[in-house]
Amino acid sequence: MFTGIITDVGTVESVVPEGALKRVRVTCAYPAETIAIGASIATGGPCLTVTARGSANGRTWYDVDVGAETLERTTAGSWKVGTKLNLERALKIGDELGGHLVTGHIDGVASIVSVEPFDGMSRFVIAAPAALARFIAEKGSVALDGTSLTVNSVDGREFSVLLIPHTLAETTWGARRPGDTINLEVDLMARYAARLAEAK
After folding, report:
1. Rounded to an integer, what distance in angstroms lies between the CA atom of residue 115 and that of residue 109?
2. Residue ranges of the chain whose pLDDT lies below 70
3. Other Cβ atoms within 10 Å of 37 Cβ, number
4. Which among 162, 9, 188 is positioned nearest to 102, based on CA atoms?
5. Do the Cβ atoms of 178 and 115 come closer than 8 Å?
6. pLDDT by residue (tens digit) across 10-63?
7. CATH for 79
8. 144: closest CA among 131, 127, 156?
């Protein structure tokens, strides 16, 4: 479980295909000794399991195996050497919940329609897949590339979010442009509320 508050930006160092999965090595600023084998790290949004870790040249690295389902349903299939990824370590009991409850289970891939910079901030208009649009509500929460954001407006499949200067500087969002694809996780409560409504 995560909060959607990004704590580092990692860089893909290598991508090695291994049958139906890809082994991805990510460098980051987390101290290597604090990352346990088997730990979960939200890497670009998806919750991935650490299979190896170490350090080299003053940087920590960790490996994750990205399975077929994740490759199909997220942007992970397009990751390559040099790709920047938002990172968040798993929530610990007693940690401050600064964003919203995020599972790291990506629902689909959305795309950036437009970016409107103003006063150091940027308003992004995002197009959600048609099947997920019903889960997105004005003033509700979404996780985009692992970042917890508040929905400002909704118009059909499109919705807008406003990013403040801090978020633009401390995550991958400052480099995002129209046409980019992003990992979308809808709000957990919205998903369950819709399922309960269907059951009636």
Report:
1. 18
2. 200
3. 11
4. 188
5. yes
6. 999 999 999 999 999 999 999 999 999 999 999 999 999 999 999 988 899 999
7. 2.40.30.20
8. 127
